[in-house]
Amino acid sequence: MSIVEPCQVLTAGYSFHRKPFYSNQPEGIKNYLFRLQTDGRCQARINGEMTRIEAGDLLLFNPTEPYELDIHSELNPMGEQVVESGDYHIFFGGSWVDEWWHHHKRPNRIKVQLTEALLGLFRQLVMEQRRISNPYPEISSYYMRILCLEFDRMLSEHPTSTHHNYLAYQIKNYIEENASSNFKLDDVSSHIGISVSRAVHLFKETFNTSIMQYTLDIRLNMARERIIFSPMSLEQAAESSGFANYTYFHRVFRSRFGMSPKEFRGIHREQL
């Protein structure tokens, strides 16, 4: 007798459509579905209406919700009719998922950043499902739970779907992914496609802290972990965490943690 996993991935894949595609399941899809639009556009039924879906739209459906997807030709910038739509899709279920679903009210669609961290979760689930011989099927279950909880975190970080909030979270994601490099405010604003002054204002308004202060917090946390757990020298730990000047790093580290990096390492290495 087969054992039903509390969180089971049934199918996981990636599709890129260059021909029209249509699917309509008015009675529901019988399982839960995550669908992440990565390229191009399509349409899906959201809250009873066919809605334009673009890259960065993450869709979630429960087993009983009507599901309709329409991938058709559209005009590209050259004025040509083309079909282009790419997406990751995961069908899943289980008792843990049922409990997770009913824990919060969940929208069918949220706008997300296509970060390497998020795309990596989808890729890993697809790879696990492709394994012909897999003695550890529970790995997929763990990855799926992480993805569900990541959905909750993204939802909590997007309490409203305003354009301003979306831009502010783009800035936040950029900082978290690039904190170890020596970027400038110009790099952040250029990546988002807005001016430096607007980027600074939006971030402060949304998170009640400055871009540079948040960057400093991320870098100090990175350095702290490397000082405790890595064999790096203190200078290497500082540099690899985004600090180009060790004197400055020493000063801000002491201000934050109340002791020098050397003292901090000595105390915490004794506790390991």
Automatic annotation (TrEMBL):
GO molecular function, one term: DNA-binding transcription factor activity
Keywords, comma-separated and alphabetical: DNA-binding, Transcription, Transcription regulation
Gene3D superfamilies: Homeodomain-like (1.10.10.60)
InterPro entries the record matches: AraC-bd (IPR003313), Homeodomain-like_sf (IPR009057), HTH-like (IPR037923), HTH_AraC (IPR018060), HTH_AraC-typ_CS (IPR018062), Tscrpt_reg_AraC-type_HTH (IPR020449)
Protein name: AraC family transcriptional regulator
Domain HTH araC/xylS-type stretches: 169-267
A Pfam family of this chain: AraC_binding
Keyword Transcription set for record: yes
Entry keyword annotation includes DNA-binding: yes
Domain of life, per lineage: Bacteria
PROSITE patterns documented for this protein: HTH_ARAC_FAMILY_1 (PS00041), HTH_ARAC_FAMILY_2 (PS01124)
